[in-house]
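To the wet lab folks,

You asked to see what we're planning to order before we commit. Fair enough. Below is the target structure as tokens, and below that is the sequence we designed to fit it. If anything looks off to you, flag it before the synthesis order goes out.
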């Protein structure tokens, strides 16, 4: 028998997203102060390798039957961008290779793409 995961592909592929949703739910619960939450906006950088559909599915699964049940997880995706020390260009990375899109130098500074933050909560009166 192979050494692969014993989890079904739909579950095994979403384990990363499920763990992220647990972290998001923990932060939301701490900041909501017991008020019902209708919407959660998260900002996630491209280099975090998050699959938005898997994150949304994980959120629905994780929050079912909890105080967050029915809340909508809205995802703001942030592209990975770099600033090049060699030519001064600021470019968006199309591939997970950290290099300048203009001159291909690897002497770059990552500007965006590693974000992972709960940006806002939409609350209703209890």
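Sequence we intend to order:
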């Amino acid at each position: 028998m192979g050494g692969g995961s014993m989890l079904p592909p739909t579950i095994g592929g979403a384990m990363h997203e499920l763990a992220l949703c647990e972290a998001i739910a923990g932060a939301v619960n701490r900041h909501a102060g017991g008020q019902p939450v209708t919407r959660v906006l998260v900002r996630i950088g491209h280099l975090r390798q998050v699959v938005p559909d898997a994150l949304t599915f994980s959120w629905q699964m994780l929050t079912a039957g909890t105080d967050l049940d029915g809340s909508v997880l809205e995802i703001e995706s942030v592209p990975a961008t770099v600033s090049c020390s060699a030519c001064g260009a600021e470019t968006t990375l199309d591939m997970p290779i950290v290099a300048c899109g203009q001159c291909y130098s690897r002497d770059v500074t990552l500007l965006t793409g590693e974000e992972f933050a709960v940006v806002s909560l939409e609350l209703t009166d209890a």
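Structural context that might help your review: The two ends are 53 Å apart (CA to CA). The chain is about 25% helix and 30% strand.

Thanks,
Computational group
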